[in-house]
Amino acid sequence: MAKTQDFTAFMKDMMGAFPVDTAALEDVFKNTASLNEKLASVALDAAEKSTEISNAWTKDALSKLGDMAKAKAEPADYAKAATDYASASAEVAAENLAAFAEIAKKVQMDTVELMMAAGKDMSEEATAAVKKATEEVTTAAKKATAAR
Length: 148
Known about the structure:
mainly alpha; rod-shaped
């Protein structure tokens, strides 16, 4: 009866000749976690500022509604109060929308900066990893050739 060949030693030698650098994977994980932390910080900061603007806008609108709801002596005063409220609301809306636009612009700029920095870091890391892998494969190939 034919005996099947034991490939265990062969596979062990082959895997040993082409080692996997887990440090590179750990670095990728750490860099990704760091980037995610920075992006989350940008998003949370923007959310906090947006909430502050919304809160101030609501308080302002409610205080102006309180002035408009007060009893007036003449019917024409009600029309004037409504006109004043609409005018003030439009002005405040424009200011607040501009503030929201500034927040969005800052988020966009911060995100682009983070992504550019991350891309540069990844490019440098990839170049170093490819160079190291090339050197390791070349060394392993030389060892394999010499072993024959």
